[in-house]
Design brief:
alpha/beta; Rossmann fold; Helicase, Ruva Protein, domain 3; 5-stranded parallel sheet; globular; CheY-like_superfamily; Sigma_54_int
């Protein structure tokens, strides 16, 4: 994964030159012309390193340095100055700067300083923290960053927007934020925006009142109200119809909702977590998702890494899912040999952790002996060969679609074409599965005939 470098300098040419140099060295770069923009970005994401000018217009870089350190005490910061003095360098070092560069900047010096700074801090980029409830498996640096983000988000009431491909653990992450928050003893309500028919979506979310009977008022509480004082998780939020999106935004901003048929607004104190596997920028550009709702939900954006970017965790995850399946299906114990683990580790995993879990369940059931070998793994993964070939060609979009298609077909075959059983096996609502079958052009009838 690319290291992210932030640059703060009021000179446009300096920012441009540094960006070119660092991107040539395979760093990801964001640059800022003022301290306010930098601090706003830092509040959402922790970079690997910051290059910070001593004077940014009329802003004092040392003051900005203090603010950066308040957010991330261990964040490596390299100061830049066109008129540096020993006193200034000493002062910056005392405040936590890891090094000091003087203008005009030398390319070699900049690269060497950044490499040295990252090498010194790579083992302590993430400060010590402890989650009270931690059900997320993994020890890779990318998953540790996710856990730290959960820890940080859980200390606040801020809204969190969780991004990630299918199967990366968005539901697990949302639950972890709630379980580690001050609202942990209050309700936690999950609402899949893609799984509820549009005609009843509003009443499911906001509730409904029937006041036609003057003596008795019939009231059905919606999911939002059910989460009072707790947390509401809006999964697949980009699938909300635009008419509902506007009402969701209104409730978020006003902290009040109106049931369908209701006459009085109801005050609500609910923390909102949202998630999607869609391309939000594309959805906004195409007019399918409101930009103002995105900004309201994304106070803290949290992106989950795909399994292919944390393959060091695969042996641990494989052992967990294998033992889970053995226990669940009352099977004799099995182990995976070294070559089998290598085959799992080298797979692209377009379906991420969910795919891994299902493959391990398949292996636990179908392998007759007590050792799962590489050939067993490769046979279990054979159905996804076409998707992997697309990935090799760089066609990720169609590879993901092909994987999803093959995955659903295989699961339907295992469940003998029963859509209800298939939806349960896939962990999605039946109505959501029907939408997938239509969009991927899968005919259950033809499968059954075959």
């Amino acid at each position: 994964m690319q290291k992210l470098i932030y640059i703060l300098d009021d000179e446009k040419e300096i920012r441009k030159s540094l960006r070119v140099i660092l991107e040539d060295e395979d760093y990801s770069v964001e640059d800022f012309a003022n301290g306010k923009a930098l601090l706003k970005a830092l509040a959402k994401e922790r970079p690997s390193l910051v290059l910070l000018d001593v004077w940014v217009g009329k802003e004092d870089g040392l003051t900005i340095l203090d603010e950066c350190k308040k957010l991330y005490s261990s964040l490596p910061i390299v100061m830049i100055s066109g008129h540096g003095t020993i006193e200034l360098a000493v002062s910056a070092t005392k405040k936590g700067a890891i090094d000091f560069l003087e203008k005009p900047l030398s390319i070699e010096k900049v690269i060497h300083t950044i490499e040295s700074a990252l090498e010194k801090t790579k083992d302590n980029e993430i400060p010590e923290f402890q989650l009270e409830v931690d059900e997320i498996l993994g020890e890779s640096s990318s998953i540790k960053r996710v856990k730290f983000a959960i820890f940080q988000a859980a200390q606040t009431n801020a809204r969190v927007f969780i991004f990630g491909e299918n199967g990366t653990g968005k539901e697990l992450t949302a639950r972890a934020i709630h379980q580690n928050s001050k609202r942990k003893n209050e309700p936690y309500i999950e609402f899949n925006c893609a799984a509820v028919p549009e005609e009843i979506l509003e009443q499911e979310l906001f509730g409904i009142e029937n006041t036609s009977n003057l003596e008795v008022s019939e009231v059905k509480i919606g999911k939002w109200e059910s989460a009072q004082n707790g947390t509401l998780f809006l999964d697949e939020v980009c699938d909300l119809p635009l008419s509902i999106q506007s009402k969701v935004l209104k409730v978020i901003l006003e902290q009040k909702l109106e049931r369908i048929g209701g006459k009085e607004p109801i005050s609500v104190d609910v923390r909102i977590l949202a998630a999607t596997n869609s391309n939000v920028e594309e959805a906004i550009r195409e007019g399918r998702f409101r930009e103002d709702l995105y900004y309201a939900l994304s106070v803290i954006p949290l992106e989950l890494p795909p399994l292919r970017e944390r393959n060091l965790d695969i042996p641990l995850l494989a052992e967990y899912y294998l033992n889970k399946s053995i226990l669940k299906n009352n099977l004799t114990p099995k182990t995976i040999d070294r070559e089998g683990l290598d085959a799992l580790t080298n797979h692209f995993w377009p379906g991420n952790v969910r795919e891994l879990g299902n493959i391990l369940e398949r292996l636990s059931i179908l392998v007759p002996g007590d050792i799962i070998r590489a050939k067993d793994v490769k046979e279990a993964l054979h159905g996804f060969k076409k998707a992997n070939e697309m990935v090799a060609r760089g066609d990720l979009k169609h590879a993901k679609e092909e994987f999803e298609r093959q995955y659903i077909i295989k699961t339907l075959q295992i469940c003998e074409g029963n859509v209800t059983r298939t939806s349960k096996a896939l962990g999605i609502e039946r109505t959501h599965l029907y939408r997938k079958l239509r969009s991927l052009n899968i005919s259950v009838e033809q499968l059954n005939e075959g």
